[in-house]
Amino acid sequence: MNSKLFTLVAGLFLAITILGFSDFQQSKDWVAPSSADELKNPFKGDKEATAKGKKLYAKLCAVCHGNKGKGDGVAGAALNPKPADFTSDKVKSQSDGALYWKITEGRPPMASYKETLTDEERWQLVNYIRELEKK
How many distinct structural domains can be found in the chain? Predict the structure, then answer.
């Protein structure tokens, strides 16, 4: 293979890898590992925890996920993939543990909250997300 052709092929491969591969990965559904389903919400049904989750949601999540959790927040409009719609059947069908895992681990463009929120605060958010689902 001559050097010009090699350079062209290598450049195309690099461009596809940098630009296309991340978009390809992000277009796939985000599925928590099955072990996340085994995590039990220690604050399930706790109204105080849900109220605290609402405050955290307003502070950290609404900007992307929207005030009503429909994935329509102002900052979310430019994101790929789009923020989850917490009122959708797709989210409703996930276990509390799966939602907790996603909040904990994150996946670009969503941040990981493992280091910034306590376990309790992440479960509080799960509780509030469940409230959003009901509306």
Answer: 2
Do 52 and 104 lie in one domain? The reply is yes
Tell me which residue has tokens 């001559």.
Answer: 2
Q: Please state the three-class secondary structure of the chain as a single string.
A: CCHHHHHHHHHHHHHHHHHHHHHHHHHCCCCCCHHHHHCCCCCCCCHHHHHHHHHHHHHHHHHHHCCCCCCCCHHHHHCCCCCCCCCCHHHHCCCHHHHHHHHHHCECCECCCCCCCCHHHHHHHHHHHHHHHHC
pTM of the model: 0.79
Residues 16 and 81 in one domain: no
Domain shared by 5 and 45, yes or no:
no
Tens digit of pLDDT for each residue in 8-38?
333 333 333 334 444 444 447 899 999 999 9
Residues 16 and 52 in one domain: no
**Domain carrying residue 61:** 31-134
Structure tokens at 15: 């461009």
